[in-house]
Amino acid sequence: GQNIDQPTEMTATEGAIVQINCTYQTSGFNGLFWYQQHAGEAPTFLSYNVLDGLEEKGRFSSFLSRSKGYSYLLLKELQMKDSASYLCAVREVTTDSWGKLQFGAGTQVVVTP
Amino acid sequence: EAQVTQNPRYLITVTGKKLTVTCSQNMNHEYMSWYRQDPGLGLRQIYYSMNVEVTDKGDVPEGYKVSRKEKRNFPLILESPSPNQTSLYFCASSLGPNTEAFFGQGTRLTVV
Predict the structure, then answer these.
(1) B43, B97, B102 ranked by CB distance to A99: nearest
(2) Which ranges constitute the DSSP H helices of chain A?
């Protein structure tokens, strides 16, 4: 989506930590999602943030700062199977739309041995 | 098994020949969406639906139609396909717009 920015690609070593940043601009923020998409497959849900702060779920954590229009996804103890594209998506609610979801272009994470 | 089913998975068609991509979910979800995915552009929302007979445009609705006559089905209709609609299409469903979405396996459409 044109209002959502995330890096195109990141490379990290197995066992390391990687942080994927996502910045957004919207007039009607109503939640932020992270999805994982392996090559040739459908996206799968990772996390959802609507309030400021950190949400932890196993090796994955997601952080949100609404005042800064910023989120990050933290992947710890990287495994080879974590090589995938990570998609940031923002739900926008305005007077004209109530359920629109905009995705960033995705960040391709490459995990090396 | 809870799932979202799209058909067909692959389709090659000619410009102007009407087609429908079907989407069905068995989870009693109210919210359904259609997306197209193009290299470098990510997923872009075409249409979404909050419930039966309630639909709204996403970011790229031009050239597409949808209908939601039943809760479980949300077909995507291309009345007159053009080559710029060649893309990978995903259908998704969720309990609501702020909950986990489940995606179908995708439909790769080529318009020649």
Answers:
(1) B97
(2) none
Burial class (CB in 10 A: 0-12, 13-18, 19+), A77: exposed
What residue has token string 């439909």? B107
Q: Which two tokens stand for residue B96?
A: 């609501």
Q: Which of B31, B42, B100 sits opposite A99 (nearest CB)?
A: B31
Inter-chain CB pairs, A–B, below 8 Å: 64
Q: Which of A35, A56, A55, A37 is nearest to A45 (CA)?
A: A35
pLDDT digits (tens, 9 = 90+) for B23-41: 999 999 999 999 999 998 8
Q: Model confidence over A50-95: pLDDT tens digits?
A: 999 999 999 999 999 999 999 999 999 999 999 999 999 999 888 8
Strand, coil or helix: what is A102?
A: strand
